[in-house]
């Protein structure tokens, strides 16, 4: 029996996807086979993405199951088909070279806002964690389509998160840990916003205050980055 050799750096990326996928349900982001994760992948002669496969329960998913897709022509290799949502993953990586990982999920509270086609306004300063004064909701389009990808890219302009109307959310990050953490943050904000709506009228922070927060957030997490940079490998 022969086995396919997986380079060490690719194996690390694959393991990160599997570990984070198994955290989807405990984190309250998605259940069963819903939602998907990807990371940017590079080799000496190509660039692409590793993505969760279509229709596979994350509890039983293994490292070799992950399809590898090229950015240039959309071709893929692996034992299982890529997620049906591969298109917006690929298009985001092409349009946003700074993005290293993408999380797409259907968490309860963010999706409750999305089915009302509501954005998350600046009711709390932590909305700025997504990169702007609000978290937009992209117009509805059928899942897996080019139209959905187009709508998501527009809603993510200048942002690291968006809602998808009647669908769920997308978050992006430099790596999978940051994209996953932001997805949890957006879901918590959505829960807080829905509670505020149910009990009164949320007070929205003015643009100048959100701009101050956005400026302050440019150095937010600097200590963690320094620790990561100096940690032994």
**Total separate domains:** 1
Order of helices and strands: HEEEEHEHEHEEHHH
The CATH superfamily bears the name Class II aldolase/adducin N-terminal domain
Question: What's the rounded overall pLDDT mean?
Answer: 91
Q: Number of helix segments?
A: 7
The CATH class, by name, is Alpha Beta
How much strand?
5-15%
CATH architecture level-2 label: 3-Layer(aba) Sandwich
Strand tally is 8
Q: Mind describing the biggest β-sheet?
A: 8 strands, mixed
> Which structural class do the helices and strands define?
alpha+beta
User: In terms of quaternary structure, what is this?
Assistant: single chain
SSE layout and pairings?
Elements: H1 8-22, E1 36-42, E2 47-51, E3 68-70, E4 76-77, H2 86-95, E5 101-105, H3 108-115, E6 137-138, H4 146-155, E7 161-164, E8 168-173, H5 176-199, H6 207-217, H7 222-230
Helix pairs in contact: 2-4, 3-5
Question: In words, what does this structure look like?
Answer:
The structure is a single chain. With 233 residues, the chain is of the alpha+beta class. It has one domain: L-fuculose-1-phosphate Aldolase (3-Layer(aba) Sandwich), CATH 3.40.225.10. It has helices at 8-22, 86-95, 108-115, 146-155, 176-199, 207-217, 222-230; strands spanning 36-42, 47-51, 68-70, 76-77, 101-105, 137-138, 161-164, 168-173. An eight-stranded mixed β-sheet has the order 4-3-2-1-5-8-7-6, sandwiched between helices. Helix 2 (86-95) crosses helix 4 (146-155) and helix 3 crosses helix 5. The two termini are 33 Å apart.
């Amino acid at each position: 029996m022969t086995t396919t050799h997986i380079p060490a750096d690719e194996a690390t990326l694959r393991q990160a996807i599997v570990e984070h996928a198994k955290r989807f349900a405990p984190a309250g982001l998605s259940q069963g086979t819903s939602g998907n994760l990807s990371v940017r992948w590079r080799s000496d002669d190509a660039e692409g993405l590793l993505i969760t496969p279509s229709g596979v329960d994350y509890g039983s998913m293994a490292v070799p199951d992950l399809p590898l897709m090229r950015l240039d022509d959309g071709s893929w290799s692996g034992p299982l088909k890529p997620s049906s949502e591969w298109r917006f993953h690929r298009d985001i990586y092409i349009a946003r070279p700074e993005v290293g990982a993408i999380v797409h999920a259907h968490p309860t509270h963010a999706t409750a806002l999305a089915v009302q086609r509501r954005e998350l306004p600046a009711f709390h300063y932590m909305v700025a964690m997504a990169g702007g004064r609000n978290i937009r909701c992209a117009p509805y389009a059928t899942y897996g389509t080019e139209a959905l990808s187009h709508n998501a890219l527009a809603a993510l302009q200048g942002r690291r998160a968006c809602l998808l109307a009647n669908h769920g959310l997308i978050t992006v990050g430099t790596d999978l840990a940051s994209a996953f953490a932001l997805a949890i943050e957006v879901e918590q904000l959505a829960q807080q916003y829905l509670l505020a709506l149910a009990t009164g009228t949320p007070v929205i922070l003015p643009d100048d205050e959100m701009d101050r927060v956005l400026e302050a957030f440019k150095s937010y997490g600097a200590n963690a980055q320094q620790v990561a940079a100096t940690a032994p490998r």
